[in-house]
Each structure stands twice: as C-alpha cells, then as structure tokens.
Design brief:
It is a single chain. 22% of the residues lie in helices and 35% in strands. It is an alpha/beta fold and 175 residues long. The chain has a single domain (8-145), classed as Rossmann fold (3-Layer(aba) Sandwich), CATH 3.40.50. It is globular and about 45 Å long.
Length: 175
Amino acid sequence: MEILIDTPKIQERLAVLATEIDQFYSGASYTVMPLLNGAMFFAVDLMRHLHGDFLVDSLAVSSYAGEHSTGEIRLRGDSKMPVKDRNILVVDGVLDTGLTLTTVRKMLLERGARTVRSAVLVSKQVKRHPMAVGYVPDWVGFSLPDYFIVGCGMDADERYRALPFIARINDPDAQ
C-alpha cells in the first residue's frame, strides 16, 4: 500500500472545498446527499467544515462487484426526504467512469430537485462512460491517475474504508 494523499492534506483541502460550497449556497438551504457506502467518511469530514443551512440525507447505490464496475447502477437504499424543490449536493468519494453520478443526477432532477450539484473527493483521470462524457463535478478534492485507491470511504471489497488517508493498492486481491 502506498499513501498518495495524507490526512493533513485531505483536511486542508476539505476546508477549502467547504468554504467554496458555503459561498456558492450563500444563505440558500440545500441537502447534502452522500452516496453510500463510499462517500460516508468524506461526507462526514466535509460536513464538519460546512457552515451553511443544510439538511443531510443519503442514497445507497452500487456499481461495483469487488474491484470492477458492473456498468449498471443499482439503488440499494433511497433517500428518506423528498427531493422536490430542494437544492441537492451529491457527495461521492470517487469519480471514475461518471456513470453513477450522471445516473443519480438525472434521477434526482426527474424527481423534481431544483438543482443538483456534486462534490467528489477524487476524480480519476480515466475515460468516462459514454453516458457521462462531458460530466464535470462542481467540486473536486483531488485528481489522480487511474489507480485502485482506498481510504476515506473508498474500499477494496469493503476493506480499508476507515483509513484517514488515500492510498494506492497495487493488488486489490492481496490481503
């Protein structure tokens, strides 16, 4: 395991992102909606830096089986509050193909969300899914090559989520 981004650097970047988000919403209410399970640690750390008027809800979605994307987005758990006429900030740990965030954004807008913005901890430098070409998150913590990364909520088959740093795993099947 190789540490790519240490804890202090992550916390410093989250403070900057939170300031930008606070300025963007500037008094408007919004709902922070982490995509579970991958965004839970990032979302909590980010929300600790936010000062605006926000509610918290979540969606449980999956597109991975082990370390490979299935190419299909599956809703495992829905939000508990209606999104109609709400400003939604979707929070995800990593943007790779973009299919998850594109699908979730479309679904929330179809449900009547006023706006849907996104914040991701890591944006991987990879080719986007054909449905996500051109998708750009509103806030990005870090940009990384297409490494298999863990920590801050990101996992290798449900392991390593609680690491407070972002690390590269050369062999995700190694234990």
